[in-house]
Specification:
By secondary structure, the protein is α+β, with helices and mostly antiparallel strands. The protein contains ten helices and 19 strands. The chain has three domains: about 80 residues; about 100 residues, no CATH class; about 150 residues, Umud Fragment, subunit A (Ribbon), CATH 2.10.109.10. Strands 1, 9, 10, 11, 16, 17, 18 and 19 form an eight-stranded antiparallel beta sheet that branches. Strands 6-5-4-7 form a four-stranded antiparallel beta sheet, with no helix packed on it. Strands 14-13-12-15 form a four-stranded antiparallel beta sheet, with helices on one face. The protein is extended, with a radius of gyration of 32 Å.
C-alpha cells in the first residue's frame, strides 16, 4: 500500500512538471533562446515518457532523478513568476473586455424616464418612513439598485449653505452637503437628485434639532448592453429600441450647450419609423403611411394600458392631428414610449443613419421584472 501511494504521488508530481514545461514552451516560444527551448522540449519528453503506462516504477524514479539533476534549473521559477503570470492574465482580460466594448457590446445606463415603463431611468422619491436596517439596505442596493438617503439636523442652527461636494472631501463621489453653524450633514447623492427626492432646506433657513432635512429613496436607472454589431449587417426595424449619438442633431446639441454641456450624448429611444415613411399622430395612436402603426410594440404604447400613455403631439413636428411628416430616405424617427414626457424626434427631427450606435439588447441590472431581453 505504501508503494502504491508513492507511485500515485510520483505520477501527480510528473503531471505537474509536464504541464509546467508545456506552459513555459508555449509562453516562451517567441522570446526564449533556441538552446533553452530545446532543453525545455527534452525535459518535457522525459516527463511524458515517465507518464506512459508501460514505464515501470523504478524507471519512473530514475527519470525523476534525471529531471532534477539535468533540468532542475528549468523547473525552478523566480518569486515574481506567479505575479507576472497573473498580470498577463489580467491584461488579456482587460484587452478582451475593451475589445468587446468597442466592437460588440457596449454598456449603457438609462438616465431619464422617456422610455418608461419599458425601461426606467433614475428615480428619486420622498419616503415617509425611516430607512430599513443595514442588511435590508445592502440587499436593496445590490439586487434592485435602490439606495436610501436621510439627513436629520443634530441640533438647532441656521443653514449656511447647501452645496455639492466630494465624499470625505476627496473621493470623486458626488454628495450633497448641508452646512450650518457648528455641524454638517451629508447625503450620498448629487444636489439635483436630493432636491427631486424632497430636500427643501436652503441657505438662511433656521432648523431645529431632530428636524428631518431629507428622507428619500433613489433607484438606479436600468443598465443594459447595446448590440453594436447588428446594424453593421442590417438596418433597424420599426419598433426596435435603439441607441444613437446626438452628434450633428442641432435641436439637441443647442440645448446641451445652453446647459454648459459640450460634445455629443447617447440617447435611447424606439425606432418607430424608417426613411420614406409618412407620419401622423392622432392621439393616442401613431399613424404610418395612412394607417395606425402595425408594429406590436407601437400598438402596445397606443393601447394606453400597463403604464403606457399613448402617443401625444409634438412641440415642433407633428403638432396637430392633421399635420404629417415624411422621414428623409436615409433617416429614422425616434420616439420614447413615455410619449408625454419624452424629448424625441417630435422636438428635433429625424436621426441620421450615421448616428446609429446599436440595438438595445439586454438589461443586466438591476434584477427587476425588466431584467432580460429588451422588447
Amino acid at each position: 500500500m505504501i508503494y502504491l501511494g508513492q507511485a500515485r504521488e510520483e505520477r501527480k508530481h510528473l503531471k505537474a512538471i509536464e504541464h509546467f514545461l508545456g506552459k513555459r514552451i508555449r509562453y516562451g516560444r517567441d522570446i526564449l533562446p533556441e538552446k533553452t527551448l530545446t532543453r525545455l522540449r527534452e525535459a518535457r519528453e522525459c516527463a511524458q515518457e515517465a507518464l506512459r503506462w508501460g514505464t515501470s516504477g523504478p524507471n519512473r524514479g530514475e527519470i525523476l532523478k534525471k529531471l532534477e539533476s539535468q533540468y532542475g534549473d528549468l523547473l525552478r521559477t523566480d518569486k515574481h513568476h506567479g505575479r507576472r503570470e497573473n498580470a498577463e492574465v489580467a491584461l488579456v482580460a482587460i484587452a478582451l473586455a475593451l475589445g468587446v466594448r468597442a466592437y460588440f457590446l457596449q454598456p449603457f445606463k438609462i438616465p431619464t424616464h422617456s422610455m418608461r415603463p419599458t425601461l426606467l431611468g433614475i428615480l428619486n422619491e420622498p419616503e415617509s418612513r425611516p430607512p430599513p436596517s443595514w442588511p435590508v439596505r445592502i440587499f436593496d442596493l445590490v439586487w434592485s439598485g435602490k439606495g436610501w438617503h436621510r439627513a436629520v439636523a443634530p441640533k438647532d442652527g441656521i443653514v449656511m449653505s447647501v452645496r455639492e461636494g466630494r465624499l470625505f472631501g476627496v473621493i470623486p463621489w458626488t454628495t450633497t452637503e448641508i452646512l450650518a453653524d457648528g455641524w454638517t450633514e451629508s447625503l450620498w447623492t448629487g444636489l439635483p437628485q436630493s432636491r427631486e427626492g424632497g430636500l427643501k432646506v436652503r441657505a438662511g433657513d433656521r432648523v431645529n434639532a431632530g428636524e428631518v432635512l431629507a428622507n428619500f429613496s433613489s433607484v438606479s436607472g436600468d443598465h443594459l448592453f447595446v448590440n453594436k454589431v447588428i446594424y453593421q449587417v442590417r438596418k433597424p426595424d420599426r419598433g426596435e429600441t435603439f441607441v444613437f449619438t446626438t452628434d450633428g442633431i442641432e435641436g439637441i446639441e443647442s440645448g446641451l450647450r445652453l446647459r454648459g454641456i459640450e460634445g455629443s450624448q447617447y440617447y435611447i429611444k424606439r425606432c418607430v419609423a424608417l426613411g420614406g415613411d409618412r407620419l401622423q399622430i392622432k392621439p393616442p395612436v401613431l399613424w404610418i403611411n395612412g394607417q395606425p402603426a402595425l408594429d406590436p410594440l407601437c400598438q402596445r404604447v397606443a393601447a394606453q394600458k400597463d403604464g403606457y400613455s399613448g402617443y401625444t403631439l409634438g412641440p415642433t413636428f407633428l403638432t396637430h392631428p392633421e399635420e404629417s411628416y415624411q422621414v428623409p430616405k436615409k433617416d429614422y424617427w425616434a420616439m420614447g414610449d413615455n410619449s408625454p414626457n419624452s424629448f424625441d424626434s417630435r422636438g428635433w427631427g429625424p436621426v441620421p443613419a450615421r448616428n446609429l450606435v446599436g440595438k438595445g439588447a439586454f438589461v443586466y441590472w438591476p434584477f427587476s421584472k425588466r431584467w432580460g431581453l429588451i422588447h
